[in-house]
Amino acid sequence: MHCPQALRFGRFHMAASAAASDGSETILNASSKSNSRNSTKSCTRLQYSSMCWWLVAVSALLVALALPPSVCGLPEGGGSYPVGKFPFLMPKVVPYKPELYLCTPVKVDYTKSYYIVGFEPNATMATAHHMLLYGCGQPGSESAVWNCGEMAGGSEESGSPCGSGASSQIIYAWARDAPKLELPEGVGFKVGKESPIQYIVLQVHYAHIDKFKDGTTYDDSGIFIHYTTKPLSKQAGVILLGTAGIIPPMATEHMETLCDIPEDKVIHPFAYRTHTHSLGRVVSGYRIRKNETGADEWTLLGKRDPLTPQMFYPVENREPIRKNDRLAARCTMESNRTRVTRIGATNEDEMCNFYLMYYVENDEPLNMKYCFSNGPPLFRWSETELNHIPDYDASHL
């Protein structure tokens, strides 16, 4: 397959191969340099030279072409379709400073539709603070690996995970040694042909780098993507609720967000995930629907201590979400710091995230992928028209 000129140091695409003996399709990973056993050990920092990147990419390509495709069996849940396994891993990088965000892309074969049905993490919280998989129209850089920040990008010299102006959505998130995730039977994230997801970008936030300081240890954190080429009628999607804002010193603060569902779709929620840094105590998410009298009815979607494994958990209520419903989330933060804490990318900052995973049947997922508020002190549920706010339940397990 023709390689984009911009990504000239490797073939960043999922190339469909012949079917395996068990009938399952496979994908060759020609972009994941983590498969290389002989990558040059002189690349000890992110700022590789052109020649060094060339050596890494060529060695990866040779190994990828020589290795047999990786294939797994049917989904553990008893699925009725063959499933392949695609190793999407960091290409033996050496993170050189704490709190570093790195991204690496893979281009999806645009001639075929793939459906992602599971995610198997290859990481430990001793190294990675978190990992995200972005579905992008274009990657945020032409490099094989680049500095990238969470959601809105990092510092000036950093590139975002997805390209400016390109479609962008989060399709999976991992943290705190969460286990693998298999989607419900018949549900999958559509990528490739006739999908806005033409690239998948892996982002890893490195929390601890001590073991990399000698320059001889490499990292291949990432995710084994489980996929099928069988068309699935239930397309998965994720909407991320989050906030900006500040947490005062020595205080308990509620960081809240609220958004309307403006699209005429029937959304079936099935999983949720919470994420904060060290100050989070409870994160809760709700669907809000007005009854005939104008009263808000709050239906709990999920509530967790965010310092437990940050995996996707089954929602508390799978009743469909419809047009004109609202989604709301709250993070209860407790600070014993003598300084103000702001939303930011490092572990000294904070985040307030509630991920809702859902599917639509015989339809396309929501165009709305993100729902963010300004957070405190500029935005609070109590200062909106909301009524019957479950103030105690939203902040207590």
UniProtKB/TrEMBL annotation:
Its EC number is 1.14.17.3. SUPFAM superfamilies: PHM/PNGase F. It comes from the Eukaryota. It is found in: Secreted. This is peptidylglycine monooxygenase. Its main location: secreted. Binds 2 Cu(2+) ions per subunit. GO terms for cellular component: extracellular region; membrane. Belongs to the copper type II ascorbate-dependent monooxygenase family. Keywords: Copper, Disulfide bond, Glycoprotein, Metal-binding, Monooxygenase, Oxidoreductase, Secreted, Signal. It catalyses: a [peptide]-C-terminal glycine + 2 L-ascorbate + O2 = a [peptide]-C-terminal (2S)-2-hydroxyglycine + 2 monodehydro-L-ascorbate radical + H2O. Disulfide bonds join C103-C148, C136-C162, C331-C352. One of its GO terms (biological process) is peptide metabolic process. Cu(2+) binds at H129, H130, H205, H275, H277, M351. Residues 87-212 form the Copper type II ascorbate-dependent monooxygenase N-terminal domain. It holds the Pfam family Cu2_monoox_C. Coiled coil: none annotated. It is an enzyme of class 1 (oxidoreductase). It comes from Anopheles stephensi (Indo-Pakistan malaria mosquito). Residues 234-382 form the Copper type II ascorbate-dependent monooxygenase C-terminal domain.
